[in-house]
What we know:
There is one protein chain. By secondary structure, the chain is an all-alpha fold. It contains eight helices and no strands. α3 (34-41) packs across α5. The N and C termini lie far apart (76 Å).
Amino acid sequence: MSAREQKLPIPVRRALVKLGEDIRDARRRRRIQVKIMAERASITRSTLCRVEKGDAGVSMGIYASVLFVLGMLDRLSDLADASHDQLGLALEAEALPKRIRHRTSPRARSGTEP
């Protein structure tokens, strides 16, 4: 385990390992060989191996390329979609004003407006 990975919170490491395993399983279900998968994703076989192990040092772009080859890129784009962010939506709703007042112009208050 690299020093970078040791600094990651345990749930993050577990999530990356699961993602790597899921990618490996998806590749196997499609019966795509490692060599072919790496070629299609424009990466080396060793990088694909690192992806399938959930290596945190592999760039997000590489993970995205691999998901694209597997036909799963749409799921990545929905990952942090605001419509799925229940906590964020709840906090946003709390911050909405309770009442809205109509602002009057300074002229209207002084009586100079017709």
